[in-house]
Amino acid sequence: MNRAQPLVLGIESSCDETGVGIVRGTELLTNTVSSSMDEHVRFGGVIPEIASRAHLDAFIPTLDQALADAGVRLADIDAIAVTAGPGLAGALMVGVCAAKALAVATGKPLYAINHLVAHVGVGLLDQNAADGGTPGGSAQPGGAPQLPAHLGALLVSGGHTEILKINSLTDDVQLLGSTIDDAAGEAYDKVARILGLGYPGGPAIDKLARTGNGKAIRFPRGLSQPKYMGTAEEPGKHRYDWSFSGLKTAVARCVEQFEARGEEVPVADIAASFQEAVVDIITSKAVLACREHGITDVLLGGGVAANSRLRELTAQRCGSAGIRLHVPALNLCTDNGAMVAALGAQLVMAGKEPSDIGFAPDSSLPVTSVLLDA
Ligand code: KG4
Ligand code: ZN
What residue ranges carry the coiled-coil annotation (predicted)? Predict the structure, then answer.
C-alpha cells in the first residue's frame, strides 16, 4: 500500500445519491454520482425504500463508470472507504454491503467513515485550490497535507444543519451546534410544498425569493431568545443550535390567514421572507460559534450551499468577523463519493488502521466518531 499517495475508492449511499469517487492522496481522479432525486419528486421528499432500491440498481454502473473515468482498475486501489453513517438505514446498508463485498473480493483494507466529516474532508482536495475554495491542503514535507489550525465547518443540507470545530480531521471533530428538529433543506422542501412550488424546494424558493421582498413578513428566528442563547460566559443550552419547525408552521399560518381573508397569497414575498429568516439565523449563530471558539477559517458544505442568499450573507458576516470562508465546487458540496475517498485517503496517510469487516452502518452515527473500528 502506498501510504504517501494512496489510491482510494470512496462509496457514498446515505441518502438519494449513489456516489463513487476515486482520489490519489489529495488529487481528485473522478467524482461519479447517480441520483434518484427524480424518483422522489412525485412524493415531495426522499422515500427511503425507493432510495435503497435505486442504490442497488445504480451501484455497479456507477462503480464501472468511476473506474473508467479515473483510468484505474480495482486491483490498483490501495483502500476502500465507505459512508457508515449518519443517513438512511437501508440506503447506508446498500453502500456498506457493496463496500464489504469489494473489500473481501479484492483483499483491500476498508475504512468505515463518518459522512459529516467527509463533507469537510473534501476541502482538502487539490481541485479546490484551483477554484480558490481550499481551506488548506498544502503538502507538508514528508507528511499529509494540513488543514488550517482553527477550522470550522458549516454543513447545511436536506439531512443536516451543523456547525463543527475540526481539531483534527482524522480523530478530533467537535459538534458545536446543530438543528434540534428539521434540517434547513428539509424546511425549504416543506415550505415549498406549502407554497405549491414542488420538490426539491430549495432551488424553487431561491429563484422566486429574488423577485420578492425579504422584509415583507418577519418570520421567527428559532432558538434566538435569551433563555436559549445565554451569554458568552454562561451559554444557554441552545446557544449554537437551530430549530426550523416553528418557522415552517409560521409560514403555513401566514398562508392560511391570507386565504381566510380571501386575499391573494404573496408567494414571492413569503418565499423571500422565509429565506431571510433561515439564512439570517444560520449565519448569525454559525459566526457566533466561530468567534467564541477561535475559528478563523470556515468551510461551507451541503446542498443548501447552492443557495445564493446563504452564500452572500455567510460571506458578508464571515468577512465582518475576520473569518475566511471556503466554499468547495458545488458538486463537491452535495453528497458524493469523492468526499468519502478524500477522508479515506487522509485516514490512510495518518496511518490509521482500517475498520473491522464486521462493522454495522449506524444511521445516527455521532460526528465525533470519524472512523468505525469494529
Ligand atoms: O446535500 P444534498 O444534495 O442532499 C442531502 O440532503 O444530503 O441537499 C439537498 C437539499 C434539499 O433539501 C434542497 O432543497 C436543498 O438542498 N437545496 C437548496 C438549494 N439547492 C438545493 N436549498 C436552498 N437553496 C438552494 N439553491
Ligand atoms: Zn451530506
Answer: none
Regarding the beta carbon of 86 and ligand 1, being less than 6 Å apart is answered: no
Domain 7-133+331-350, second-level architecture: 2-Layer Sandwich (3.30)
Kindly tell me if the per-residue pLDDT of 3 is higher than 90.
no
For residue 142, pLDDT over 50 is answered with no
Q: Is 55 annotated as a binding residue?
A: no
Q: Is 157 in the pocket of ligand 1 (CB under 6 A)?
A: yes
Q: Is the minimum distance from the CB of 16 to ligand 1 under 6 angstroms?
A: no
Taking the domains of the chain in order of start, what are their residue ranges? 7-133+331-350, 175-327
Fold adopted by 175-327: Nucleotidyltransferase; domain 5 (3.30.420)
Instruction: Provide the 8-state DSSP code for 41.
Output: G
What is the CA(216)–ligand 2 centre distance, in A?
Answer: 32
Same fold? 7-133+331-350, 175-327: yes
pLDDT at site 132? 41
Say if ligand 1 is within 6 A of residue 19 CB: no
Give residue-wise pLDDT tens across range 34-51: 998 889 988 888 899 999
Choose one of 34, 182, 188, 332 to mutate for the ligand 1 pocket test, by most ligand atoms within 8 angstroms of C-beta. 188
C-alpha to C-alpha distance for 253 and 247, rounded to whole angstroms: 10
The CB of 203 under 6 Å from ligand 1? The reply is yes
Distance 72 CA to ligand 1 centre (A): 32
